[in-house]
């Protein structure tokens, strides 16, 4: 049996229904869908994502990434993206996994490995695609197999995950992943700024203050932030505000003006314009449409 076929069968076995599922392995989640999903606006945390069956589109700003079983996706910083399952059916459901990255484990690997073990390439985007190689695929399959023997998970899952991270660190993602764990790296500085923006997205963004917290000049900060996220700090903040406002309207039945004010907008008309620009429709029409969509189709 091909490894990718075994991976699809394992994910099918441990999901069995459409949706997103946590597992007994820490930070490992599985996904299944029997129909294409709605475009899903989320803040994607650092992770590696593998598709066993089906196809997905991810959008970061104006950039579009298509990936399937031949590739894997890595995200090295928190990024506002639009995820969209585009190939899925009842006969061949979309099946995938996401392993959230553990900076502590990455740091330990970097300290223990010989200094010349990893590539010194500098990262750019905080999200990228790479071909799925046989060694990494075998590693992923062995990790998912552990779900069949829960008693082995506490002992073997950390070892298998450690090997998986080693494969990533010695592959084309080396530069990106190394910088997650290195406190002096530009990526770490940008990530620090992202954390500050996320905690204070409702407030007026002062670039000079955020740049200072990231230990960069305003011009250097703007340049590196856009290189990693594909958007300016203000655009990043705007996406956080609008995603949160959409969540509030959908989950708490707030009206558009109240939701806009809750996330930092003083002008209801400006909020509605920017909401429609991001989500394709004004708040009322967008929410009315989403309420008629099955929940699992919003989990793209």
UniProtKB/TrEMBL annotation:
The keyword Phosphoprotein does not apply. It holds the Pfam family HTH_18. SMART domains: HTH_ARAC. GO terms for molecular function: DNA-binding transcription factor activity; sequence-specific DNA binding. InterPro entries: Homeodomain-like_sf (IPR009057), HTH_AraC (IPR018060), Tscrpt_reg_HTH_AraC_N (IPR009594). Residues 191-289 form the HTH araC/xylS-type domain. Gene3D superfamilies: Homeodomain-like. The keyword Transcription regulation applies. Keywords: DNA-binding, Transcription, Transcription regulation. PANTHER family: ARAC-FAMILY TRANSCRIPTIONAL REGULATOR, TRANSCRIPTIONAL REGULATORY PROTEIN. This is AraC-like DNA-binding protein. The lineage of its organism: Bacteria, Pseudomonadati, Pseudomonadota, Alphaproteobacteria, Hyphomicrobiales.
